[in-house]
Amino acid sequence: MTYTSALSAQDVDFDDALSLHQFNPTLGTLQSVTLELSGSFDGQAGIENTNKTKGLSATLQLDGLLTLQRPDLMTLISVSKNLITESVSLPKYDKTFDFSGTSGKSFDSGIVSISDTLSVKGTDFALFTGTGSVTLPVFARALSVTTGTGNFTSSYSTSGSVSAEVIYNYAPVPEPETYALMLAGLGAVGFVARRRKIVD
Prior knowledge:
single chain; 12% helix; four-stranded antiparallel sheet
């Protein structure tokens, strides 16, 4: 039994929540709960050497982070992935501030997928059991850093989407017809045993 909740692409950073259907205990005995957190990031980075007399050597790095939490804000799943890592050597400022030309550079990560899976502990089964939904906080972060010496300006922007999937594995409650067949079978065994005893 699988349920999914998703948030469409939006600017990162964001804080939100995902609502997942709980397991209805009238269906049977819950044996395992598996959570999968997945999403995607699209990141852009730019750098401009603003030094009018000297060149620049620098490195740009952009990472995406997704975290799914329990209602009490304890972390369930946290996963990160590098989106951009680029080293550049740029000549002196070309007098046009545009992250391009001779003194600037821009990068685009494209769509980068990210995911991780968790087998929920039995002690947390109660969180996912009921006749309603469980609301799990989720947040996305863009983590950026530019290293270099000299005068420069760097810029980053990131968008991202996220979804969570819960899978319930359970032993179903036998249908009433199954109980009837079991009772009929026991009755037949008892009848045969009694008849055998009379014959003996």
